[in-house]
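Good day; I would like, with your permission, to put a structural problem before you. What I wish to show you is a protein chain and, alongside it, a tokenised description of its three-dimensional fold. Please examine both parts with care and let me know of anything in them that strikes you as inconsistent. Thank you for your consideration; the sequence and its tokens are set out here:

***
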Amino acid sequence: MDSNLDISEVPKELVKYIKSCSKFIIAGHKEPDVDCVSSQLALRSALLRMGKTAIVCSAGPFKRPETKEYLDKFSPILPEISRKDTKVIIVDCSGKERTGDLGETLNEFPCAVIDHHAAGTHMPSTKEAPVYVDSNAPACAVLIYKVIIALGLELTEEEASLLLFGICTDSGFFRHLTEKNAQVFELTAKLIARGASPKKTFYKMHGGKSLGSRILMGNILSRTESFFDGKLLLSYETLKESETYGLEGRDSDSLNQMLLSVKNAEVVVIIRQELVDSCTVSLRSIDKVDVAQIAASFGGGGHKNASGLSMKGEISFVKQKVLEAFNNIFTS
């Protein structure tokens, strides 16, 4: 049986770590996505129901439109809190170094990790700092579900809705799942039974877009270039467009979906000029190409088929560097 719902896989040390403490800081990675945000909030809700103090922290920035509504729930810095009997749980990343500016302030606390990324170096698991990693899980939300159940709780409707949102965004509304992920659909059914709505979740992901976002998508599509015999498609968003359309104009999932549907396309690269001297790069692949390795080579991270990175320089420079990295894959 697929191990995605095997509650026995939750480390006993992690359950003891949580049950034995009364105060928690729940931290996520910088530039959080929906899976990170929803995992933090669902875990906080469960801990509060256990009578514990739980604070969610994120260094931000909250760049993704889907995460904007949750911004005011997070503290960008470590709040004033008694260090006595306080522990940290880091979710959806490998450790303190991925939490951005929060990292150094977390050093004085015991830190546990809950993550589903294969990329990144995870800390060794100990009783004082247990590590729960399952790279086969399509979202960290799956692991948070298992942790909540292992703690002896049933999910609330709010927690179920948050976890479904995380699973749907990280799996591309199930597009990235395979025949090996049957138990994820079993979990989805459990979340729906607890009150989560696939219809509302889909609309949160794809509905309510502005006309400007459609125009921006058309601009990016119109300048798409093909490389390596059509195996890689690359486009970009200019600084002027970033300033004109802002975060609300971005619809990365729909854009990547359209480009990956092109015949022979295996990888899609979208470069965005965020600042005069800095770009972000979105990397997506269908199956074979591990874009997480490419992202990691530039200090980024993510999954085999969905990763990202930041790089100093203008679009032309970043484009050259990224194509050089993929050249080793497509011409070897």
About this structure: The chain has two domains: 3-204, 211-330.
